[in-house]
Amino acid sequence: MTNNGIVIQTRGLNKRFDTVHAVRDLNLEVRAGSRFGFLGPNGAGKTTTVRILSGLMKQTSGDATVCGYDVSTQRDSIKAVTGLLPESPGLYSKLSAVEFLEFIGALNGRNGSALNRRIDIMLDMLGLEGRQNDLLESYSSGMKQKVLVASTLLSEPKLVFLDEPTSRLDPAASALVKDIILVLAQETETSFFICSHQTSFVEDVCDVVGILNEGALVTLGSPQEIIENTGTKDLEDAYLKIVGGHVDRKTLLAWR
To answer: 211, 218 in Cβ contact below 8 A?
Structure first.
């Protein structure tokens, strides 16, 4: 379910925590089937935005719809059609990968042969087919992240929120996740909302990028548009130019 081809729409969205204004008057549209990248420094408000849009947290003011559902009154409907991989998810270490994915499937009302086929496909795609019955406590951090990616995509959601999806992954596994996102977006019209600190990953994967700074959306456009508008060579340089972060070499050398 979308609203005229728009999978996410926010209007004046705000979130305050006591004296902290985490999200400031966010006005945003994300089209169905797109791969939207959300960049910003730590504390910029990216994760707070995702929690609101995924139905885990209420906004202070403003409005938003996700897959056509209102974040204020239809949060359960949003959860039913979206997938979420948070930055610091939990795993049941005493379960095997298959058992964990069966558990996640059951939570989403899925079971039987169709679920088992989906689990086999996901584990094979992520290169875990030989370890599917081993306990998760024996997995490396990268392998656990792969299982979590699989659990997020298991129910074939219309929209997937990924908060630092390649954290703890080696370059080969990161490239695999990138390929999965691109294939799913192109072949199934799955929409992705990706928070990441890895500008190279976002530049390769996302067709639209928003940069958040101190809770406010300061830049929006395709990676190429942002690079051209800032007169930089790549998205990393553009990001640093917009939000700051370059090292003052003279100060550093004087300190030494």
So the answer is: yes
- For the chain, how big is the Rg over CA atoms in Å? 19
Total domain count, the chain: 1
CA neighbor of 156 nearest in space, from 66, 99, 97, 83: 83
| 238 located within any domain | no
Contact 63, 220 (CB under 8 A): no
pTM summary value = 0.87
Nearest Cα to 120, choosing from 157, 150, 162? 150
Range of the domain at 114: 6-220
**pLDDT tens sequence across 2-46:** 567 899 999 999 999 998 999 999 999 999 989 999 999 988 999
Q: What is the CATH number of the domain that holds 209?
A: 3.40.50.300
Entry field: residues in the chain = 256
